[in-house]
Amino acid sequence: MTYDVIVAGGGPVGLACAISLARDGRKVCVVERSPLSVLADPPFDGREIALTHHASNWLKDAGAWAEIPAESICPMHTARIETGAVGSPPLLFDAPAEGPDALGHLVANHLIRRALYRVAARTPGVEIRAGEGIETARHDARSASVTLTDGTKLDADLLVAADGRFSKLRDAAGIGAIVHDFGRSILVCRMHHPEPHAHTALQWFDEGQTIALLPIAPDGRDGASSSLVLTLPDDEIARLKTLEPEAFNAEITKRTHGRVGPMTLESPRCSYPLKAVYAHRFHAARFALIGDAAVGMHPITAHGFNLGLKGQEVLARAIHDGPGDAGAPSVLSKFARTHRLATAPLFAATNAIATVYTRDEAPFLAARKLGLAVANRLLPFKSAVTSMLMDRR
C-alpha cells in the first residue's frame, strides 16, 4: 500500500492529476468517498464548464475528449455582457476572425468527470479506491500517510488534497483560507427555448439578479437549449428550486424578459452557495492543494475548472523536474510559487468585478454601465480579454 502520490478526491481535477502523474511513471492512488457507480456514471449536477482551448487540448491529449459525446460539446462563438435594462449596449467578445472559430467549448461537468474516470481507470499506475473516506491523514518531512474508513493504511511520498473548496484535509493541515461569502446562491438547470442562442454566452447583470445563459446544444428547427445560471438571495433560490415546473417556467421567462422566448425546464434544478475560496498556502510538508481546495473561483469568469486543470499540470511538471521525490520541499515550493502567480491576480480581479457588478446602489449601477461602454471601445483591452478567455497556450 505504498505509492508515489495519494490523491484525495476523485473529482475532475483529482482524476486529471492522477492521469498526469501516472503518465509520467508515478504510482498513484485516488481515494474517493463516492461509490464506484457514481464515479463511473456521475449524475447531472447542473454545472456547464466553459473549457478554454488549453483545457480542451489537455483533455484531447489525455484521451478524455474522445469519451465525451460529440453532440454534447457546444462551441461558444461570442461572449455577451450586459448590465441594467434589456436593450442596453452590450460588451461583446467574438472569436478572432483569423481563427479558431470558437472562444471555447461548453461541456457538462458530469460528462467531463465520466470521461476522466474512464481514462484514469485504464491508465497503468493509477489505482482508484472508491467508496472509501479518509479517516486520518499524516504528513511530515519524511512521509505522508492516510488511514481509510475501513482501517486500511496507505503510504506515499506526497498527499494531494483535491477534496473541494471546503477541504477537510486543508483544515486538518492547519492551512487557513480567504473565504469571500457573496451572501447569494446560484441555481443551475437546463432550459429549452424557441429562439436560437447563436452559440452566444450571455452574462447579464440585471438589477436584483444576475443571469447567465450558456449555449449547450446546437440550434435546431424547434429552438435550442441553454444552461441557466441564476444568482439570487438564498431564500429566493430555495423557493425557485421547489416551485412547480409550470410556475418555474413562467417566472424564468419573466426574469429573462422573454428574450429567447418562453422557457421550459428540461433538467433537475441544482443549487450551490456562492463562496469564493483562496488558501493561505498551497502546500505543507509532503502535502499539496489543487483544484477548489487551493482556489475556488466565483463562476463569473468561468475559469474555475480551467485553473484547476492548470494547477495539477503545474504540480505534475514540478514533480517531473524535481529530484525524483514527489514530496520534496523544492518541488512543492516551486509548484506553490508558480500556481500563486497564475491565480492570485485573477482571483482578486474576479471578486472585485463580481462585487461591483452585483451591487444595485446608484453609484455602482452608473459605474458598471460606464465601464462596459468604455471597455467596448478599447480594442487592446477586448483583445487581451479574448485571449484570456480562449487561453490557447
From TrEMBL:
Gene3D superfamilies per record: FAD/NAD(P)-binding domain (3.50.50.60)
Pfam families noted in UniProt: FAD_binding_3 (PF01494)
Keyword Cell inner membrane: no
Pathway recorded for this protein: Cofactor biosynthesis; ubiquinone biosynthesis
Family per record: Belongs to the UbiH/COQ6 family.
Species, as recorded: Gluconobacter frateurii NRIC 0228
Protein name: Monooxygenase
Keyword Oxidoreductase tagged: yes
